[in-house]
Amino acid sequence: MPKTRDTRGPNVGGIGTKAELPTPRIGVQGQEVQAASGNGLTTLLRATRSSRKTAVTINGERNLGLSDVLSVARLRAKVRFAPSAKVLDRTTRTLAALKSQIASGVPIYGVSSAFGGQAGRILNQGSPEILQKNACALSAAIVHVDVSTGDPLPIELVRAAMLIRLNMLAAGYSGIRPSTLLLIAELLNAEVTPVVGRYGSVGASGDLAQNGRLISVLQHHASARVYDSAGIVRPAAEVLQALQIAPLVLEPKEGLALVNGDNYSSAAALATFAVVVHSLLLQLHISAIVVQVLLGSDRNFHPLLDAVRPHPGQSAVAQILRNLLSGSHMAPQEIASGHRSKAPGVSVQDAYSIRCLPQFLGPDVERLESIRSTIAININSVSDNPLWTDAATAAAGELPEQWVSGGNFLAMHMAEALDAMRKTMVRLVKLNDRHVARMVHSTLNNGLPPNLSPKDSISRCVFKGLQTQMGMFDVYATTLAAPVTTNFGTHEELNQDITSHALTSYLIGIELTKVLGLAQASTLLAACQAVDLRGGPAELSESTRPLYEWVRCRSPFVRFEQPLGADIELVASELNVAPLSIEECSEDTYMSGVFKSAR
């Protein structure tokens, strides 16, 4: 049986400094790991990591990868805008049809009409020259949507949104010149990023308030600001003049094409997805340590349970936990040997928060796989309005190059994804609360001292404050879980009477992600305290020991009552789960090893 003693762990104080500790690797060995490659987790991981390409090509064929977006957004990969011959032909035909229809006085939304609730204001009378002039003036008038306010969105997210917008418009259905789209690529390649406020989008006619800022930047409006390549905020006109980018003169439909789409919602969903996938995989390792210090059995994750209830997410989580617990001297190794006899009065099975981890977290794995697919579809979709048909998309009996008014800008798919990911984050916060509650409770933790308090503690309340704060995280996270997609309003002259508010869900998620990071850090600190009280890291499985060591070179064993807030914040900040922006998982972080467990 594993040792259970109220003493300091043998490695307490002997880990060394952060600089002295080799980079931990939390990989798992064995055949089971290879089998895990088909369980969906590998796909999720690949989607959250940049492709490390030095250049990403936008050819209008709608084949942009999630990792490509991360490469451009985070790693500043160059963008090569090179429409294929087929796309150029479609674009040319669309632009010719648009010009002809303007000259003929065809009423077209946003081209010869005003916008939204004013779509009944149609300017299609007069000579072809007057009609063209009016159409250009209407195109420029769309700048009124540039109203985003509040703290700026992260640079990485804005870059992602710009690339996605370029990809959406490059397909040739939108009536926008390639020369105009090339300007987006030029800004990305020059690492010039509009300063965009986080408030303003209702996710209905796309992310109008945010996309409008790009027009203001390209037209050198005095109010427009950008981050230059050094990250310094400067007037857009000053920076673009230095790049020899003249103020953009919009042609008909181009203004509407640039603003009318859900690319910011898509970028926000991708950013959140990357964080949640990382947090879920980290949680498996945290929970594996908790299982061990509570003396939980690996038989909770017996393959029988997967065989008779073969949900892929459940099977994936169970397999990872089997791998992580293998060789532990604390968690009874009972998969092959069967349940061992317990002492009188000890339950013959573990609590739900230990025993049911695969069933609890499995749906999140499956949900994230579905979200990955949804985001991939969305970033490769055409989401503005109106659009023009080609020979392949025209209805039966319809001539091509006819305009279609529709609602692909409604960001409901991204809003649903963001709401769902907030739900996953709340579940993780609650799980961590339950983990800490069991570890500090002397009648539930299988022999650990009250509140994980060593003998030097006078009050036996060393981790009581931390555990109480976990209750606040639980309630606060629950409050932040309210779905936006069922709480929308009616806006814009009653025209936008159903809306998505995807970016609103993202903004709530920013706060929720901070709470999750603090909750996971708190659980790690408590679990590492318990490890030392159980006899030290030598009792842990080989696969979970490096995470303990990573924590210990940042926060030592707690011998008596002391403030722990700074330790929680330090560990949370270095777990890379608190910031809600698109982040690359660099090879020199312990997370690169965490990911190996799912391959």
Derived structural class:
mainly alpha
Describe the main β-sheet briefly.
Answer: 3 strands, antiparallel
Q: Any low-confidence stretches, pLDDT <50, length ≥5?
A: 1-39, 577-599
Number of H/I helices: 21
The top-level CATH class of the largest domain is Mainly Alpha
Mean pLDDT: 87
Radius of gyration (CA) equals: 28 Å
Give the CATH H-level superfamily of the largest domain: Fumarase/aspartase (Central domain)
Order of helices and strands: HHEHEHHEHHEEHEEHHHHHHHEEHHHHHH
Number of strands: 9
Would you give an account of this structure?
This protein is mainly α. The protein folds into two domains: 31-38 and 270-335 and 349-376 and 411-596, Fumarase/aspartase (Central domain) (Fumarase C, Chain A, domain 2, Up-down Bundle), CATH 1.20.200; 55-261, Fumarase C, Chain B, domain 1. Helix content is 48%, strand content 5%. The protein is built from 21 helices and nine strands. A three-stranded antiparallel sheet has the order 4-6-7. Strands 1-2 form a two-stranded parallel ribbon. Mean pLDDT is 87; it is low at 1-39 and 577-599.
Structural descriptors:
9 strands; mainly alpha; 21 helices; 3-stranded antiparallel sheet; two-stranded parallel ribbon
How would the blueprint of this fold be written?
Layout: H1 31-35, H2 41-47, E1 55-58, H3 66-75, E2 78-81, H4 85-103, H5 128-141, E3 149-152, H6 155-169, H7 178-189, E4 193-194, E5 197-199, H8 208-218, E6 225-227, E7 233-235, H9 236-242, H10 254-259, H11 263-293, H12 303-308, H13 312-325, H14 352-355, H15 357-379, E8 387-388, E9 403-404, H16 412-440, H17 464-479, H18 502-534, H19 545-552, H20 565-574, H21 591-596
Parallel strand pairs: 1-2
Antiparallel strand pairs: 3-5, 4-6, 6-7, 8-9
Helix pairs in contact: 2-15, 3-6, 6-7, 6-11, 11-13, 11-15, 11-16, 11-18, 13-15, 15-16, 16-17, 16-18, 17-18, 18-20
